[in-house]
Design a protein that fits this description.
Number of domains: 2
Low-confidence stretches: 198-207, 409-414
Strand content: under 5%
Oligomer: single chain
CATH architecture of the largest domain: Up-down Bundle
Radius of gyration: 21 Å
CATH class of the largest domain: Mainly Alpha
Helix content: over 70%
CATH superfamily of the largest domain: MFS general substrate transporter like domains
Order of helices and strands: HHHHHHHHHHHHHHHHH
């Protein structure tokens, strides 16, 4: 009996989903400047660690500001226009970075970089969910995350070698690949339009632009949508817990448990391998799951994964905690993104995705700092117990969607 192909669910995905996935892969393969930004600022520009941290905070603030604005722009002008502009402008800003030597200029550039680069997140999510049928959205999002993880398994690794040769070279390669991703997106969209370039198709294309403009209005509606706000609260809480892989977790493993940095890096290799091998088939198999129990399961897995660090001290148990939160990650992000698309009224997907993306940026600003501070002042046991409790709080919030009158059910085809 032949072994079933776990990626068979990708065969029916529309061309737009593959266009986004290919663009994301090209962009992420070259993403190496941000992971090495602190090292660049401290070792190459000889800026203090505290000022380098301020630059990272500026990036988080820029992402928080741009997410809702980019979402609204995606509704008005289309997600592909916003994504193309984001890739091109971020590429140009990254190429300028090696020319900046003043601390103030570096911080301003970092902020502007985040403003244009993080505009891609709501635009990408809007394009993916709009381009796929409701029953295909989890698979489409999982495919894009596969592109992200494949690219991130290459970009930072290559960046490590480039940093040894020349730190400015990181920015040249990163900026060039961002511009290349914008060019790839334009070329693929042009090819798609030519392949479907009948007069009727062109008429439908212009009609969709007219409909988008007609649906757009200045007034925001997402902040009055209680089920959406509930999901955003869950996302914010969960991302604060999840961000501990950048906050308390490395400090705990390297400083407190005295593991090498290579052990910590190896856990990310494990995380990436699991995602590359299993996220797409997992979400294909869960395509018909209602969103509420899927999100509840994901939050429990993430809570257990980080909470268990309080009792996991040897390599194998620590690796098992990573397996737990990786499965939670693989379920939570595609399911919650698909549910946001389900909640959004016609013509408002970008607005909802922008608000959703804001929870990621806010968690990145708050989460790593909070986890590290708790570890220093309260100790490991209290920190990881708190993360477990906070994760379960997010699980309990999944029930509020029903009490608000909206069941969190993923729309699936008959």
């Amino acid at each position: 009996m032949p072994f079933p192909n776990p990626y068979r669910g990708l065969r029916g995905l529309p061309a737009d989903v593959w266009i986004i996935a290919v663009t994301t892969l090209v962009n992420r393969v070259g993403m190496m400047a941000l992971p090495f930004l602190v090292l660049y600022l401290t070792r190459y520009l000889h800026i203090s660690a505290s000022v380098a941290g301020l630059a990272i905070s500026a990036y988080g603030v820029g992402g928080l500001i741009t997410a809702p604005v980019a979402g609204r722009l995606a509704d008005r002008f289309g997600p592909y226009a916003v994504l193309r502009a984001s890739l091109a402008l971020s590429g140009l800003i990254i190429l300028v970075f090696p020319l900046a030597h003043s601390v103030a200029v570096v911080i301003v550039l970092t902020f502007l970089w985040a403003v244009v680069a993080d505009a891609a997140r709501p635009a990408t999510m809007s394009a993916l969910t709009a381009g796929a049928d409701p029953g295909q959205r989890k698979a489409a999002i999982a495919l894009n995350r596969l592109s992200v993880n494949l690219g991130m398994s290459i970009g930072p690794a290559v960046g490590g070698f480039l940093a040894q040769a020349s730190f400015p070279l990181l920015f040249i390669v990163d900026g060039t690949t961002s511009l290349a991703a914008a060019a790839v997106l334009s070329a693929l969209l042009w090819a798609r339009q030519r392949s479907a370039g009948t007069p009727a198709d062109r008429h439908a294309h212009h009609a969709s632009h007219a409909a988008r403009a007609a649906q757009f209005s200045a007034a925001s509606v997402v902040w009055r949508d209680r089920p959406a706000l509930t999901l955003f609260a869950i996302s914010l809480i969960m991302n604060i817990v999840f961000s501990q892989h950048q906050g308390a977790m490395p400090l705990y493993l390297v400083r407190d448990l005295h593991y090498r940095e290579s052990f910590y890096g190896g856990l990310f290799v494990l995380n990436t391998l699991i995602i590359v091998a299993l996220e797409v088939p997992l979400n294909v198999s869960m395509a018909h799951w209602p969103a509420r129990p899927a999100i509840a399961l994901a939050t429990v897995l993430i809570a257990v994964g980080f909470g268990a660090l309080g009792v996991a001290h040897s390599p194998l148990p620590i690796a098992i905690t990573v397996v737990f939160w990786t499965f939670g990650e693989m379920i939570f992000f595609p399911t919650s993104t698909a549910y946001v698309a389900q909640l959004a009224p016609p013509g408002r997907t970008g607005e909802y995705m922008g608000a959703f993306a804001s929870t990621f940026s806010l968690a990145l600003i708050v989460g790593p700092w909070l986890g590290a501070a708790m570890l220093d002042h309260l100790g490991a046991s209290a920190t990881w117990a708190t993360m477990f409790a906070v994760g379960l709080l997010a699980t309990s919030l999944t029930g509020l969607a029903r009490s608000h009158g909206t069941e969190m059910v993923a729309a699936v085809p008959d």
